[in-house]
Amino acid sequence: MTYVVTDNCIMCKYTDCVEVCPVDCFYEGENTLVIHPDECIDCGVCEPECPADAIRPDTEPDMESWVEFNRKYSEQWPVITRKKDPLPGYEAMDGVAGKLEKYFSPNPGEGD
């Protein structure tokens, strides 16, 4: 099992999760985070830390595409280990449907 970041992180990018990760497996894009599925040790401490409920275990239905999404971008983006402020307007974007299609940016973030 592994944990993955899903589309509710897009345009919010809370980083509470990265501070509790014992193996530093979060990677930062311009407007979202991902978890490297091969580095995640399945401890689950990140999941309850996410205010947007964007972190899910891969054992839930229909998570295969999110595992591959997280894998792809974790290999392209810089690691992030420190908490940062969420993106401007994050409150309004929390829970918005269709964020992957409408708002996702493949550009890397700043990382640490």
Automatic annotation (TrEMBL):
Cofactors required: [4Fe-4S] cluster; [3Fe-4S] cluster
Ranges in a coiled coil: none
Superkingdom of source: Bacteria
Domain 4Fe-4S ferredoxin-type stretches: 1-30, 31-60
Keyword Iron: yes
Annotated keywords: 3Fe-4S, 4Fe-4S, Electron transport, Iron, Iron-sulfur, Metal-binding, Repeat, Transport
Pfam family of the protein (one): Fer4
GO MF annotation terms: 3 iron, 4 sulfur cluster binding; 4 iron, 4 sulfur cluster binding; electron transfer activity; metal ion binding
Alphabetical list of InterPro entries matching this protein: 4Fe4S_Fe-S-bd, 4Fe4S_Fe_S_CS, 7Fe_ferredoxin, Fd_C, FdxA, RnfB_subfamily
Keyword Metal-binding: yes
Its job: Ferredoxins are iron-sulfur proteins that transfer electrons in a wide variety of metabolic reactions.
Record-linked PANTHER family: FERREDOXIN (PTHR42859:SF2), OXIDOREDUCTASE (PTHR42859)
Protein name as annotated: Ferredoxin
Originating organism: Paracoccus sphaerophysae
